[in-house]
């Protein structure tokens, strides 16, 4: 069933009544993205919180020199959006695009706000989700400031084993804050030591 994955994601944190589940499903919208297609671009409004049922997306920022800085990857069973734009109602600060063909379930901002008011159990779910995302981003920030590149790569592979095979090295290097050449050297050294 098309909603099984998102309902499992929710059930990992909260229990829904049939009424809450049915209402939640009723506000979801389906969206397909082709590889390299944007979900949201920096400078545009971000009207949706998105759940990935198929595919892999990335969120990134482009600096004034045109350099991409990847903030996160997200695959099946993950949520992604430009949180600043979605929550504040201002324009997005980041880009979100598909690294693979993708299928998404979207919650529009006004429907999201109504959901939280009408069914407070979802306040708990989204609070837990945001707390976990914050912890993950905080840990990544600390590691990027304090760990050598080879250790950051090892941590990445350990935490996200599917990404190493799924993503181009250039994307992983950007996420880790290193050059693709440095990542190639790290991977070669790691292969020799295995």
Automatic annotation (TrEMBL):
Residues 16-116 form the Cyclic nucleotide-binding domain. SUPFAM superfamilies: cAMP-binding domain-like. InterPro entries: cNMP-bd_dom (IPR000595), cNMP-bd_dom_sf (IPR018490), RmlC-like_jellyroll (IPR014710). This is Crp/Fnr family transcriptional regulator. The lineage of its organism: Bacteria, Pseudomonadati, Bacteroidota, Chitinophagia, Chitinophagales.
């Amino acid at each position: 069933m098309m909603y099984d994955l998102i309902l499992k994601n929710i059930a990992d944190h909260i229990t829904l009544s049939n009424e809450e589940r049915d209402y939640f499903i009723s506000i979801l919208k389906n969206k397909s993205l082709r590889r390299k297609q944007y979900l949201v671009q920096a400078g545009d409004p971000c009207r949706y919180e998105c759940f990935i049922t198929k595919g892999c997306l990335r969120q990134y920022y482009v600096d004034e020199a045109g350099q991409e800085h990847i903030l996160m990857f997200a695959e099946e069973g993950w949520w992604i959006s430009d949180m600043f734009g979605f929550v504040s109602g201002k324009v997005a600060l980041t880009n979100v695009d598909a690294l693979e063909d993708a299928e998404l379930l979207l919650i529009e901002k006004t429907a999201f706000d109504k959901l939280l008011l009408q069914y407070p159990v979802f306040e708990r779910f989204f609070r837990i989700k945001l707390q976990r995302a914050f912890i993950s981003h905080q840990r990544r920030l600390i590691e990027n400031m304090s760990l050598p590149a080879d250790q950051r790569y090892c941590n990445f592979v350990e935490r996200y084993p599917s990404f190493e095979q799924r993503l181009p090295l250039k994307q992983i290097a950007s996420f880790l804050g290193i050059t693709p050449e440095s990542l190639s050297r790290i991977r070669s050294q790691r292969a020799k030591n295995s």
